[in-house]
Amino acid sequence: MSSRIARSLTLAAVTAALAACSSVPLDQTGTAGTGADGASTGQIMDPFNPQSPLAQQRSVYFEFDSYTIPEQYRSLVEMHSNYLRGNTQQRVRIEGHADARGGSEYNLALGQRRSEAVSRMMGLLGVNAGQIEAISFGKERPRALGNTEADYAENRRADIVYQQ
Question: Under DSSP, is residue 122 helix (H, G, I), strand (E, B) or coil?
Answer without folding.
Answer: helix
